[in-house]
Write a structure and sequence with these properties.
Elements (H helix, E strand, L loop, with lengths): L2 E5 L6 H15 L4 E5 L7 H8 L4 E3 L7 H13 L4 E5 L1 H13 L4 E5 L11 H14 L2 E4 L2 H11 L4 E3 L12 H9 L9 E5 L8 H14 L4 E5 L5 H10 L6 E3 L6 H4 L5 E4 L8 H8 L4 E4 L4 H4 L5 E4 L4 H12 L2 H18 L2 H15 L11
Parallel strand pairs: 1-2, 1-4, 2-3, 4-5, 5-6, 6-7, 8-9, 8-11, 9-10, 11-12, 12-13
Helix pairs in contact: 3-4, 4-5, 8-13, 11-14
Length: 376
């Protein structure tokens, strides 16, 4: 048995984090795996972390409709003696599925987004992916219930298997270390610090969060905000912070590979997205033991229970500001939410349960993985 994880790129993102996490889990269980990126990105942090595990990464950059690249992928699958392929994101769901079937390899295609950004919509690409999902993939899975619901109409009667994302519980820093790290951001480390993690793009709602933060500061002048991530709108959001007079109270840390270590340094996690699937950052915040204020999109209602935090409508900065004010002015509620969050991450989104569910699905598609399942 050997599984190939095929993905559009190994640049930092939610899908890439889950590929890395799955590779780690498969290695711990001595299950052979190879990772194939459809981009020329061998030097990314995630690619390096995967290779550090002793797993080979292959990088096949090129245009979507490139028959030579598809043939190279078919050859690679055969050379690696792959018995199952698992694809992530649009290009992989097209090229990876097509190549796997041409190589005689069963393939699981995965859906990971509940929204469609009109700026990047390509009708040909969309219909090609729909064809491979409905006609060629052995199984279609989604990493969240909201994602499956969004795509079900597109796939007609084709069933979608839902296996929600998972997260590991990170070690928590000591009080002294936490204060030291916070002081590197703001001179007063006792300020209540909000943190938001995500790629900077319009659907992620960072501009909404800044407007909400400006309103919050009118009532809680000591509040501070940290953004983690990078992307196309970062410069505009930084400029917005300056225009709102918030430059001294907001920090932009850029793209980071140590997000699980950063999250416990904050007091509250904020997710202002306009749409999401099952956000990996939201699960990481849960595992870090953070109270959460998030927009009511995607699978957020299945993650953020009432004891963990609160949900507000997307694109509503005032509602976001009010929810944050309520949390920050009730320390006992914050403390209880923090404890409930970490407990919920362990019980509902644990790595072992997630990995076993994936291996069970792998076995249904390729019986060679049966020996990897835990004994009942």
């Amino acid at each position: 048995m050997k599984v190939a994880q095929i993905i559009d790129s190994l640049k930092w993102g939610g899908a890439q984090k889950m590929v890395l996490t799955l590779v780690q889990q498969l290695c711990e269980r001595s299950i052979p795996v190879t990772v194939i990126s459809l981009s020329d990105d061998a030097d990314t942090d995630i690619a390096q972390q995967i290779r550090a595990l002793g797993v080979t990464t292959h990088h096949l950059g090129g245009r979507l409709l490139n028959l030579g690249r598809i043939q190279r992928l078919v050859t690679l699958l055969n050379q690696e003696s792959v018995t199952l392929a698992h694809t992530y994101l649009t290009y992989a769901n097209i090229i990876g599925v097509f190549a796997a079937r041409a190589a005689g390899v069963p393939v699981i295609a995965s859906l990971r987004s509940a929204g469609r950004d009109p700026r990047h919509y390509n009708p040909l690409r969309y219909h090609m992916e729909t064809y491979t999902l409905t006609r060629m993939a052995s199984v279609v899975m989604a990493n969240g219930h909201a994602i499956a619901e969004v795509h079900q109409q597109r796939l007609g009667n084709r069933p979608i298997v839902v296996i929600p994302n998972a997260v590991a519980l990170p070690p928590l820093p000591s009080a002294a270390e936490r204060q030291r790290q916070r002081a590197s951001w703001f001179s007063d480390p006792t300020r209540p610090i909000l943190m938001s993690v995500g790629r900077f793009s319009p659907p992620k709602g960072q501009a909404d969060l800044l407007q909400a933060f400006a309103q919050l500061r009118e009532r809680l002048p000591q509040a501070a905000l940290v953004f983690v991530g990078d992307g196309e709108t970062r410069a505009a959001v930084e400029a917005q912070a300056g225009q709102l007079g918030l430059s001294d109270d907001v920090r932009f840390l850029g793209a980071r590979s140590d997000v699980p270590a950063l999250l416990p340094l904050a007091d509250v996690f904020v997710s202002p997205s306009h749409w999401e699937g099952l956000s990996v950052a939201l699960l990481e915040a849960l595992a870090a033991g953070l109270p959460i204020v998030a927009t009511k999109v995607g699978d957020a209602p299945r993650v953020v229970s009432a004891d963990v935090g609160s949900l507000v409508s997307p694109k509503d900065p005032t509602a976001l500001a009010n929810a944050l004010h309520t949390l920050l002015t009730h320390p006992s509620r914050c403390a209880a939410a923090a404890q409930a969050a970490r407990s919920r991450a362990a019980s509902q989104f644990g790595l072992d349960t997630w990995t076993n569910r994936l291996l069970k699905l792998y076995t249904q598609v390729s019986p060679s993985f049966k020996e990897a399942l835990p004994r009942e």
